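Sequence in, structure out. Go.
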Amino acid sequence: MTARSAAFDLSGTPAARVLKLRGDWTVWTVGPVDAELRALSRDLGPGVSVDIGEIGHVDVAGAYLIDRTVRGASFENTETPLDLIGDNDKVRRLLQTERAAIQSCPTREPHPHGFIAMLARTGHAIHDAMDEGLANLSFLGATLTTIAKLILHLLLRLVGLERGEQQRGRMRWAALFHTMEVAGLNALAIIALLSFFIGAVVAFLGARVLQDFGATIFTVELVAFSMLREFAVVITAVLLAGRTNSAFTAELGAMKMRQEIDALRVLGVDPMEALVAPRVLAMLFMTPVLTFVAVIAGLIGGMLVCQLALNISPVLFLNRIQENVPVRHFWVGMIKAPVFAVILAVVACRHGLNVGGDVASLGKETTSSVVQAIFLVIVVDAIFALWFMELDW
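Output:
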């Protein structure tokens, strides 16, 4: 099919001008009108509407040329409203995506020294931390809303009130199960191995300390309490933060750099549904499973040390756990697992979607994602400890 040449007409009054576009606006067709639009943009002024109803094909080059004409001579002038008229959703989405992708070049600011500068940096750091917290809460709300919509659509489809395979509101089962395998099952071995050694170390330390009081038998309870309540779930969360959290951020960041996420939006696919929701649900399903495996591995490591170093048989070890360790300690650790899973997935996906167009931004966001996830896990674990202490759990 032969491409139609790009053309335009300017009509209306000086206070309300209409720029009517016709033909195909692609990299192959916008060359002849580039100079005319560049000259027009200097005198166009505010209050111009763009009629996109008769545009055929359009690509990023054409969208940039249209937006540059509306913005005028200043490349960083993103405050000029983009008033679009005409029924052409494809062009509308591409122009809105192109406008959102404009990034201004920051100027280098001087770095003063001294006590006042230290106070200023401290204030900026506190302000940035508060902004990060609000951004995480906002992204968490958007994620929960998206998951609720997916579950609602799924329930309606199961009861027969909604039919068809709409692009929006559709659960991506393949992405969900693939992420469960990559982020969950593939991490099973390293989590079990590390938890085994953590349980063995706790048993060694407990035996060494309790030996001075003639109470080495209580090493069993020490291993059980520490693994059930704290170590299993925290070690699982920290390992997932270093392994899976960084992978999520890097994957989404690479997609953002290659403009794949912008392409999804142009196609009408919500990235929250296609990319974020499957990762959050996969972590929500797999983290309790990995925590349970970590508990079993830690108890096995402690039991092995008790048998070799303290001559406590496995039968006695398991009997003391059954008799002296209430089952609520197991549920304390399991309750934390889904909370940590949501924290890890939300932080990873938010930082991945915040990646800019360069590799330095990808590395910065990946590092920030891992550090912030581990920090939040430790803080939330401390809050859980205080809460369970007040509940006498």
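Check: Strands lie at 7-13, 16-25, 48-58, 83-85. DSSP finds twelve helices and four strands in the chain.
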